[in-house]
Design goal:
Two copies of one chain form a homodimer.
Chain A lengths: L10 H13 L35 E5 L5 H12 L10 E3 L8 E5 L2 H11 L2 E3 L5 E3 L14 H4 L2 H13 L7 E2 L6 E2 L5 H7 L3 E6 L3 H13 L7 H8 L1 H16 L1 H13 L3 H10 L10 H35 L19 E4 L6 E4 L2 H44 L2 H6 L2 H28 L4 H31 L2 H35 L11 H8 L9 H17 L6 H23 L13 H23 L1 H10 L3 H25 L5 H20 L8
Antiparallel strand pairs in A: 1-3, 1-8, 2-3, 4-5, 6-7, 9-10
């Protein structure tokens, strides 16, 4: 347990803490705070093995403008104090002036290594295999003396944040220069944040690495992404997104080729294009036999394709997770997340004293509060849609009666109202979802993220697809669906690219950048400060949902518009570059916790792939060609329906069988994982006596 | 690695082996081979901590009649030799005469404890929690000095078998008195079995425990089964079967009550009974409104009920597994099963040298050999059914044309032919399935069992249900289905009870028993010998399949015959007693490996529960009442079908959601399991150096 405060007078800790204060007034050179800064300005390390020539600035902390010098001194002392005295055992640099509003943090070797063990990261053992890192056995791991090779930049920065988030008051105490008091076990970093002492905590870019990365990633014409470097620089959560984007884009090739071939051979290229671009619903009655079977092939192919792709991705994902050392994360055994609260008690799993919160109470909150509220919002979406349809009908009637300029303008009113209603609802919902998830009080950060993502996901998905489903299942109007789908595909992709990249780029170039001109001679601190003027990285939610919606268009409705895959392929090839550019240049570097997979997104994609069978079978059933064909074949509509149901069940069965038969991890990863489990079991047996508690 | 043979002259091992031979001619009393036998006749233990006053006879080995004394002496030496010298480190007793055809085996404390660790059993730690047993830490486990409390009888006996199965030749050697030679790493026990030296290896009954158990189990009128004692006496695989039988029987109460209520209130009791007993298909046209909704309630209820029951059973199963210490079995880290073969190599998981067999080769064998062969047999079942229908049609036509006594007899020919065809096919298939699974070369015993069970399961299931499905889906004849179902339920249950219990009981009482009269004065050895005259326990396959078929009748077709649950409940209440009687009295005691759940049966029940939705929705759709109702309501048949499909999808969705939402293990078990995982992770970290290999 890490606890803070207290030991004002206690030996080593107070000595190290006094250091910066004593030195900075003595005129330490400002340029010292660079990549090659040596000793003096940084807090001293108590542990002899961690003393190094060179301290790497990892994280920038921005303090409030009104923070008093004694508060900052106290803070630096706490950050530098060893963990047994309740500190974070990190290195702190007070910036140019001891009283300035920034601090730069780094971490000594021992802190990094201990946190690596706590997080459950795997690292290369001396025999070349990945093994769960063990602090006691550190000398047998490769490169464990050189932190900049042993841990990636993203890991080092995440560890600093992890230590800061873990700071807890060791007893009730006052923070110098602040009126608020800390109570026993209060989370110090959260408290300082809410008291306005700490405004921002952000990881710093490493300009050289960033330059290399961007050259390998999006500057040239390379086809493959440098995923290992992305993982090293931005962390595994980000790297998993880009890996999936990559994998998914390449796996679009088969359906794209098939779609092109079918469209070409059925001689429909021009018509499809015209239709999709002009939006006019051409009559489908004259379509010929081959097209029918082509569409059916396309539909069946895309249904099976989606399962195979998701299964193969799971295999790829598990081998990436082995490669990046995140296959054995120990989050559930670590300290709870900062926002977690509950009565103090002994954790039955780890034996540590920490806040506990009964699971049934969380389940109750989810069942009685979260689910009804989410349901209410989904109801509001449907209500909005109904109002929109009603409004549109009213307005059109009005327009037919009056036919004036005013009434023509009125025609747009329902759409505008509906769009703004949807947007307001989405914003409100996002806040509500966050508080709901906070209220559910999850112990682990990942559980929190998963529940929040799931909530927003359901809503966003509903929001995007409600209209399409309405057209497909209630209006049963295939041409309208096709028109809508084509326009959605083209328009939303254009809009997305513009809002996501072009606007931030323009803002950055012409509004922010002039205030941020950099030159070689600038003091290092100003360069750091510049980074904090960039907007915060909005997270990967929007990126993932974009992919999911794409995947939805493709798998749910592909049989009505076979060129979907082609359009998506083109979009994604640019998307990779723009996303890479965005995260490198337009935003602050994000903290990224180690991740073993795409978490809840994986499930979302898989669920969609099963829903797609139902939707495709239904759409095929609706298709006028097929109905005509069956009528000619002398089948009654009941029999056609029965046939469709049969086909649907068979396809679902095939998908389930495929999903079960394709192992979720490649054989070699399974063996490595089992080896890690075996080693851990062996270790338990070798132990003479159990470690009671920890 | 255990290896055998060799060290003829090596110190302690040869001394212990010489012992029995030296003593028995000197006239050791025959009665010494009793429960309280003291020292002399047993082989000596080399380990001082294992010397005990009392040796418990655990396993009887029956040798071939022509086995020469030197072979038996060699065998006893190998069994008694320590594991490092390639022996089994067990205790052996040569029986009355050194040259006789039986041996009695037991196991000393150290061997038992080491095997407990190897098997990955959990035992009570001194703090009262279950922990994975560790030999080094043995003194901290409760009762680890008293093997008869620490391990159950079933576990002790299984460990003896486990050690015997693990005997492997340490180098090429000749067995004295046999012409065959053993090659390096040959499995000794298998070799001796195929050479006719060893005829039988069977665990011995403990008469006192058996008496207590049978009194608590089936002799009285008690409602609850003594499951812990069953686990102790017969092992966890058997105990899991009886626990499931118990759980399933009680969970039949709700559908039985509902079925009775509905049948009673719709005033159909008499009719249903008459129909089911006389087999006459009453006209259903006059049935009234309430009955319709009653059947629908019954169907929907039973569809959801099956999921809830299976989920709750999983929870119960995991808490039983914790209670019985089998939650952390380490089979995949242990030695491969005796029949496993492959090139020698280093196992990448455990680092031990052992036979390896690539997974892809096994997958290939499954895909290219097993699946086609199984498919062929399923095809033969269908072919048989088609021939039967064709034959029946032919014969009936013939009968209509001729109408003589001969033609009336001919009417039965197709049925008789079909039944004998089915039986022959089933017997052949069972042999084929066994060789196929042997050919697939599974490494673990449980994998072998699972694959074998799955194969036989699919076939048996097909065999049982093909006709019913044919009636339901192709003939679409609900009254016939009802008739068939009722007769199947009643007849097969009667037949089963008779063949399973009454016949073995009669055979035992009137044919075998006269040759096996026991009296108190008999020498102990004859009592042991008597046990080997009982027939071998046929395993739980037939019992499980009976339950599965029941469950199938209930969940797949319950809506056509609402009294199914009532009949099953009555059957199962007697089934519990008869099964218990059977395993206690009519068969040899079986060896039972520790098991953590019902394995493949769990999956079979769950799959059935999903198939039931499809089948029930279809049957409801077929029901004449419903069709009439809809016609009156003015719905077209297409719309009715659409509605049914919608209902089906919603029900499947609800079942999936239920299955996901109900956790598979109770919270307290999850916490204990995570605690065990955490301890194991901690242990790994505490270790200074990794254990390379084992």
């Amino acid at each position: 347990m890490r606890k803070a405060g207290g030991d004002e007078g206690g030996g080593g800790s107070s000595k190290t803490a006094e250091q910066p204060e004593a030195k900075t007034p003595a005129g330490a050179a400002l340029s010292k705070l660079s990549d090659t800064t040596i000793g003096p300005d940084w807090t001293k390390v108590s542990c002899p093995c961690c003393v190094s020539e060179r301290v790497e600035p990892l994280v920038l902390v921005k303090l409030g403008e009104k923070v008093r010098p004694e508060t900052k001194r106290w803070l630096i002392r706490v950050i530098g104090a060893p963990q047994k005295d309740g500190g974070a055992a990190l290195l702190a640099h007070p910036g140019e002036e001891a009283t300035g509003d920034i601090m730069v943090l780094s971490a000594p070797r021992c802190t990094l290594l201990k946190a690596t063990e706590e997080l459950g990261l795997c690292k290369t053992y001396r025999n070349g295999e990945m093994e769960a890192f063990s602090y006691n056995d550190r000398d047998n791991f490769k490169d464990s003396d050189n932190m900049e090779v042993f841990l990636t930049l993203a890991e080092r920065q995440y560890i600093v944040k992890y230590e800061l988030d873990g700071l807890r008051a060791q007893r009730d105490l006052r923070i110098p220069g602040l009126s608020d008091a800390l109570q026993h076990r209060d989370n110090i970093w959260r408290k300082l944040g809410s008291a306005g002492v700490i405004v921002d905590t952000l990881p710093l870019h490493n300009p050289n690495q960033l330059k290399d990365l961007s050259e390998a990633w999006y500057a040239g014409n390379q086809l493959a992404q440098p995923l290992d470097s992305v993982n090293g620089y931005f962390g595994s959560s980000v790297a998993f997104y880009f890996s999936f984007l990559d994998f998914y884009t390449w796996s679009l090739l088969p359906p794209a080729i098939l779609g092109l071939t079918i469209t070409y051979f059925s001689g429909e290229v021009q018509k499809e294009m015209e239709e999709s671009l002009s939006g006019s619903s051409a009559t489908n009655d004259d379509e010929s036999g081959p097209a029918v079977s082509g569409h059916m092939i396309q539909a069946v192919f895309s249904m099976l394709w989606s399962t195979v792709v998701m299964e193969l991705w799971k295999r790829r994902s598990s081998s990436l997770s082995y490669r990046w050392g995140t296959m054995n994360l120990a989050e559930r055994f670590a300290e709870p997340r900062p926002g977690f609260h509950g009565g103090l008690g002994v954790n039955p799993v780890t034996g540590r004293v920490e806040p506990l919160f009964p699971d049934w109470q969380r389940d109750l909150r989810i069942a009685l509060v979260s689910i009804p509220v989410v349901g209410l919002f989904l109801g509001l979406v449907v209500l909005g849609m109904l109002c929109f349809y009603w409004g549109e009908a009213q307005v059109q009637e009005l327009h037919r009666d009056w036919d004036s300029l005013l009434s023509q303008t009125l025609l747009y009113v329902p759409s505008v109202l509906h769009i703004s209603y949807t947007n307001v609802l989405a914003t409100v919902y996002r806040t509500v979802a966050k508080s709901l998830t906070e209220y559910e009080n999850h112990r682990e950060e990942s559980a929190f993220e998963n529940h929040l993502t799931a909530k927003v996901l359901v809503f966003t998905f509903f929001n995007y697809f409600a209209v399409l489903f309405h057209i497909a299942f209630f209006k049963q109007d295939v041409p309208l669906l096709r028109k809508r789908l084509a326009s959605l595909l083209i328009i939303t992709q254009l809009v997305n690219q513009v809002t996501e990249v072009v606007i931030p780029f323009l803002v950055d170039r012409f509004i922010s950048a002039p205030h941020r001109t950099e030159s070689e001679d600038d003091p290092q601190e100003d360069k750091f400060r510049n980074q904090s003027t960039l907007p915060t990285f909005p997270g990967l939610f929007a990126e993932y949902i974009e992919l999911l919606v794409q995947f939805g268009y493709l798998s749910l409705f592909s049989c009505v518009f076979p060129l979907t895959a082609v359009l998506l392929l083109i979009n994604n090839l640019t998307e990779i570059r723009t996303d890479a550019y965005k995260i490198c240049k337009l935003f602050r570097k994000p903290f990224s916790p180690p991740a073993a997979n795409m978490r809840v997104w994986q499930i979302a994609f898989e669920v969609l792939s099963f829903v797609s069978v139902v939707s495709n079978c239904w759409l095929l059933l609706l298709s006028p060609w097929l109905q005509k064909l069956f009528q000619e074949g002398g089948l009654s509509s009941t029999n056609v329906l029965l046939l469709a149901v049969l086909v649907e069940h068979v396809l679902i069965l095939v998908k389930v069988v495929l999903a079960v038969l394709i192992p979720d991890e490649p054989d070699w990863v399974r063996k490595k994982r089992e080896h890690i489990e075996f080693t851990s079991m062996q270790a338990l047996r070798e132990q003479k006596l159990h470690c009671e508690g920890s």
